[in-house]
Every structure is written in structure tokens, then in C-alpha cells.
Amino acid sequence: MDSFMNAPEGATHFQLVLATTVLSDYAYDNSSKSFEPVNPNENETNGIAFSTPIALGGTVGSDTTLTVDLGFTSVLPPTVAVISAVGIVFFQEINGQLYELATNNAMRIEAIG
């Protein structure tokens, strides 16, 4: 694992993050003179999931799966996009307590569909 990430100095653990949001297309509404979401009920629905903290240099033990349930019970319309981003947060363990490090955390958009 160490060869695949560049952890900040002092980091002892990391945590994976999955952030997902739904964004609607927008259309101009003459009555309000503004752009309004085509699908306001789905627009900006979002969720986030975190893995358990994983020790740097240790073994993960098994696959890590992150899932975000946005609560939809039917297929989303083609006028919305689902955006997913994956991130990593680094921690330092001090006296058995994990403290989030303020630098070198990252997030990147992985999928838009």
C-alpha cells in the first residue's frame, strides 16, 4: 500500500471517502426570470460514506466497499447527472486517538453519469 500513496509526514492512518450527488439540468423560467432545475425533487440529493480508518503500512485485510444510498426507488430521469468523487483523509494517532491532518487530503471526481 505504501508504494501507491504519498502520505503526509506524521500520518499513521487513512480513511477513504465516497461523495455522491445528483444534479438536475436547468431550464430558464420566464415567470421567475431565472434558471430552475428541471427535476427539483432529485436535484442536490447527496450522500457520503467513509471507510473505517486503515493503518498505513499495515494490511487492509479485505476489499473496502463504499456505498451511498440516495434513497431513490425508481430509475433517475435522463435530465439529471450523478456525480461521484473518491477521496482520502489522513490521520495521526496520538495516545490511541486519531486526529485528522489538515494537509495533503485529496478528492477527485471519478464518475459522472
Structural features:
113 residues; mainly beta; six-stranded antiparallel sheet; two-stranded antiparallel ribbon; elongated
Output the number of helix runs: 0
The H-and-E topology, N to C, reads as EEEEEEEE
Distance between the termini: 30 Å
| Main sheet characteristics | 6 strands, antiparallel
* Strand coverage percent: over 45%
Shape assignment: elongated
The value of Rg in angstroms is: 19 Å
Tally the beta strands. Answer: 8
> What's the assembly state of these chains?
single chain
The residue ranges in which pLDDT falls below 50 over 5 or more consecutive positions are none
Roughly what is the average pLDDT, rounded to an integer? Answer: 89
Structural class: mainly beta
Helix content: under 10%
Task: Describe it.
0% of the residues lie in helices and 47% in strands. The chain is mainly beta and 113 residues long. Strands 1, 4, 5, 6, 7 and 8 form a six-stranded antiparallel sheet that branches. A hairpin with a 4-residue loop joins strand 2 (26-29) and strand 3 (34-37). The protein is elongated and about 60 Å long. The mean pLDDT is 89.
